[in-house]
Amino acid sequence: MRMRARIPGIALPVLVLWILAGTPAAPADEPGTASYGIAMHGDLKYPKDFAHFDYADPKAIKGGRVVQSVVGTFDSFNPFIIKGNPAAGVDLIYDTLTQASADEPFSQYGLLAETIETPPDRSWVRFTLREEARWHDGKPVTADDVIWSFNTFLTRGAPFFRFYYANVKDVVKEGERTVKFVFKPGENRELPLILGQLVVLPSHWWKDRDFEATSLEPPLGSGPYQVGAFEAGRYVSYERVADYWGKDLPVNVGRHNFGEERFDYYRDATVAIEAFKGGEYDFRLENNSKVWATGYDLPEIAKGQIVKESIPNSRPVGMQAFVYNIRRPIFRDPLVRQALAYAFDFEWSNKTLFYDQYTRTRSYFDNSDLAATGLPSKAELALLEPFRDQVPEQVFTEAYQPPTTDGSGNLRANLKQAVGLLKQAGYAVKDGVMTGPDGEKLAFEILLVQPAFERIVLPFKKNLEKIGVQATVRTVDTSQYRQRSDDFDFDMMVGSFGQSESPGNEQRDFWGSEAANRPGSRNVIGIQDPVIDALVESLIAAPDRESLVTRTHALDRVLQWNHFVIPQWHIASDRIIYWNRFGRPATTPSRGVQFDTWWVDPDKAEALAKQRRKRS
User: Which domains does the chain show, CATH number per domain?
Assistant: First the structure.
């Protein structure tokens, strides 16, 4: 069904305006409750006197060196701005106000902050810093640092911060170690947790430096590591801070165990894989199904020198997809977007290219209870009904499912469907070329950053050619890809929208109208839809887990039926391969592998070194 045209600035239904208005901001003197942690919904898993996270081992051995790989390059140690390519692992040098646990949907425990205080309606949050918190130069972390960091991110940082912190009205210093964030009117229970994620920077170090410039000067931090040796574009290492102020905090016990973490850069994934086999680095998270199935037939695995395993997780996988840029005129019609999806044969790809390792993604929140399935519930319908004439009718009548095939490679029926939809959109085949009502041919470029994806995209391209659609494939380097995606300079790209177990304010940056024309935002699709804006705000205002799930389902359905992407695939496990020199905790949390809880086992490392010396 063709959707009714959307008018910028269209009035929202009264119901939604009421949802967005929420309750007035609490009086400034309303008392709050101070705590060692805060949960998005429900209770904290860990008690006040907890010793460590269940998935961290307090007996973990400190020391040793670990090397990982990165494909691409880097030219900056500033990951907070839109310019440059930040070095991998630079987050290791910083602390945040709080630390999330990996075995709860969304809970934060004090890190830099000793206490987190909020009133019942969460209309403000107060953080009191730990007196012992120190920068690596020995100076204390102060309220001024927190305020400077927040204001700098908001005014000079990447666009994401402006959306993430949009509901903060004011930030107030209440003492040398106490900061209060006051929120704008409206329900936004996630905001105290979001502010807890704030990376705190040293204002005294940045005083005479240009925050908006790329720089390879090692920055000052307060975290468990500091920048060590590096060579731009080749490698960077981080050295564990022996007297790190926070090493004995419960949130850190059993974590940050490696004495040195190094990241080596490679031109492409093929070179990086061969380097791993040669022992150039230690640990690899594999995301290529062909390599996983056929690329590691190594004698070292049989000998126990290399370990290859797939570890299940239950975290939301988000959406990986062929992403349309609907700023482009050819992709503005949902019928065109829906039609082209029939040319992608996932079942054939999974069988032929992926060794049946993947599941087709159908939801923006797959692999979780947040994914919309079946028909809308009564609670979902109550949210969606005010928008009935502004969203596709299928939102109410059908469960979304991407086009499917029998996996034989015969796409005739699907391509016939595609042609029918394109005819409804005013297209016709002229001289073998699908041509629009304006006389322009249906042609576009698919932008890639990984050469390995070409084997997946080229069959899609050939299927499109069978119906007269001309697609070209362009693979560029990491820097060009980032620049073009930041500037929305693409027709179609392979992209992903990662999700958490507790979606919230970040959804504005994914789908919000304000983000659509702001370079560097994650709304690469270009969505400007008042209905989606309203559903995002409703989700952010969810007062409990049940309503959060319901509101996420409603948003999911509207995104699905607008055909903004062609969904690809996912896997609910971490595929890891590593040289057998590590120890790790007995427990893996629901969020999956937590490499920062592993350690170098001296006995295993020595045994492996002896075996490799014999081999050489």
Answer: 319-570 (3.10.105.10)
